[in-house]
Write a structure and sequence with these properties.
295 residues; single chain; Glutamine Phosphoribosylpyrophosphate, subunit 1, domain 1; alpha+beta
Length: 295
């Protein structure tokens, strides 16, 4: 029998879940236009090209017939692997509130995924499920995109999806569809993939990969350096608002049975990459204290 307290708690949980769903659908449903020209990128090579703006239009309201728009936003992200530690992770910046809420997906011993542009957030868990079954990243890309039912081709077409998939060994593949906003594209390197949409140009993803490969130290510092290099190269053309980072490794987190090495989010900030740097360095200081045996 439910007591008044039980009913109250159940109601609060329901409201919380509804708010989370609304946030994913509206705010974190992420950047409308923006991927690179039709293409697939695989480890050991790169593919990046400019193309025409993705088509986007308002979504009619079912009640009043009003037009509700998900405004275009810009996003650039980086996926990376550290063969020395076995850590895998990603980082992202966007001109949208709480970008980390829907772009980055990761699981220890499985891999990491970034899904963005005319985004279908389900690409994240779908890709991880396939990686978990041993499907290689390039095949994950193909299966996920080809199985997309494209429920809203007129205004939220699958032709505008952009996503990258990296397995637990650092093999990576990326896809940028033909209906993303200029400039959009990706570049794939060894154990790294950078992708973005509504960018200043291809130099953004180029500089990101170069920075990741040239930076030494913990994976978080290399991912952070990549974001900073992308922003310095012009970043997105709409500005900045939020940033996030996610790194995983089996047993790599603090406390017991925690695979999350780092999960950081800057949800709303005039300089989110700078604020993310502050958090990354705080985390580095904490790791140093743990290694030294002090609190």
């Amino acid at each position: 029998m439910k007591t008044p307290r039980t009913r109250l708690l159940a109601g609060l949980v329901g409201v919380s879940l509804l708010a989370t769903v609304l946030l994913v659908v509206s705010g974190a449903a992420e950047g409308i236009p923006g991927w690179e020209g039709p293409g697939w990128g695989f480890a050991g090579g790169d593919l990046s090209s400019a193309h025409e703006d993705a088509h986007w239009e308002g979504v009619p309201s079912s009640s009043e017939g009003e037009t509700v728009r998900w405004p275009p936003v810009a996003t650039f992200s980086i996926l990376g692997y550290d063969p020395e530690t076995g850590e895998v992770g990603g980082a992202v910046q966007s001109r949208v509130f709480s970008v980390g809420n829907g772009v980055l997906w990761a699981e220890a011993n499985v891999g990491v995924v970034a899904t963005q542009a005319i985004v279908d957030v389900s690409y994240g868990p779908q890709s991880l499920a396939l990686l978990r079954d041993g499907v290689p990243p390039h095949e994950v890309i193909r299966r996920v995109w080809e199985s997309d039912p494209d429920p809203r081709p007129e205004d939220w077409t699958r032709e505008g999806r952009q996503f990258a998939v990296m397995d637990a060994q650092g093999e990576v593949a990326a896809f940028t569809g033909p209906r993303a906003s200029d400039w959009a594209g990706h570049r794939v390197g060894r154990h790294v993939s950078a992708q973005g949409n509504i960018l200043a140009g291809p130099e953004v993803v180029d500089r990101m990969v170069e920075a990741f490969e040239a930076t030494e130290g913990h994976l978080s510092l290399r991912l952070q350096a990549a974001l900073e290099a992308g922003q310095a190269a012009g970043g997105d053309t709409r500005g900045q608002q939020s940033a996030a980072m996610l790194i995983v490794k089996e047993g790599g987190g603090v406390w017991l049975n925690n695979d999350v090495v780092l999960r950081l989010q800057v949800d709303d900030h005039p300089e989110p990459i700078t604020e993310l740097r502050r958090l990354v360095e705080l985390a580095a200081a904490q790791r140093a204290r743990i290694r030294s045996g002090s609190r």
